[in-house]
Amino acid sequence: MAKPPLRPIPRHRTRRPPPAEKMSLGLWWIFGVLFLVMASAFAFSTVILLTVGLLPAWVAFVVDRNPTKAAGKSVMSLNLVGVAPYLIDLWVVGRAGQMDKAYGMLTDPFTWFVIYGAAAVGWVIYLGMPHLIAGYVEMRTLQRKAHLVRLRQEIVEEWGEEIAGAMSRQGD
User: Fold this and answer.
1) Rounded-to-10 torsion of CA 119, 122, 123, 125
2) 85 membership: H or E segment, kind and range
3) Is the overall model pTM greater than 0.85, yes or no?
4) Distance of CA 145 to the CA centre of its chain
5) Are 125 and 74 contacting, i.e. CB atoms less than 8 angstroms apart?
6) Longest dimension (CA), the chain
7) How many structural domains does the chain have?
8) Would residue 26 count as lying in a domain?
9) Which contiguous run of DSSP H or E holds residue 144?
């Protein structure tokens, strides 16, 4: 018994659901400021250290026009790494000496170097990674091309020059 011919599968256009509404950046800023105001009532020294320490990350979020905010994310993550040891050191002191400790940290140039240096590394990663990846892709492409040229030469040696003409006509 002969099999019936295969029918093509009908391709219906599917409707995509509308994208979910995202909160605007302005609303996030309002929530952030409200959080800082409320947190400053309980941990003023922490808020001061975070406000000053995360300034490069805030600037990165503001100047990044990309909707994914990749610059802001890379700078923020490394900026938090730079601020974290000082926050932990501040919290270990206890409530009694936190303001003095925070003032001491903010007047120490090494603290500024560590915090803003970490943010600078975030910028270097953001700005340098596309070039690094492009160089890697180009290197792999050149290696693949060299491998294919060697493979072609081996085929020509094995099968003769006639195949080279056929290969070049096929590539056209």
Assistant:
1) 160
2) helix 70-93
3) no
4) 30
5) yes
6) 92
7) 1
8) no
9) helix 109-159
| CA distance linking residue 159 with residue 14, whole number of Å | 51
- Where in the sequence is the domain holding 161, given as residue range(s)? 34-171
Q: How far apart are CA 103 and CA 45, in angstroms?
A: 8
CB 118 within 8 Å of CB 56: no
The structure tokens listed for 126 are 């953001």
3-state secondary structure 20-80: CCCCCHHHHHHHHHHHHHHHHCCCHHHHHHHHHHCHHHHHHHHHCCCCCCHHHHHHHHHHH
**Residue type at position 112:** W
**6 exposed, middle or buried (CB, 10 Å; 0-12, 13-18, 19+)?**
exposed
The whole-number pLDDT of residue 33 equals 78
In a domain, 63, yes or no: yes
Condensed to tens digits (0 to 9), the pLDDT of residues 80-120 reads 999 999 999 888 877 777 888 888 889 999 999 999 999 99
- Residue 170 is classified by DSSP as H
Place of tokens 């493979």: 151
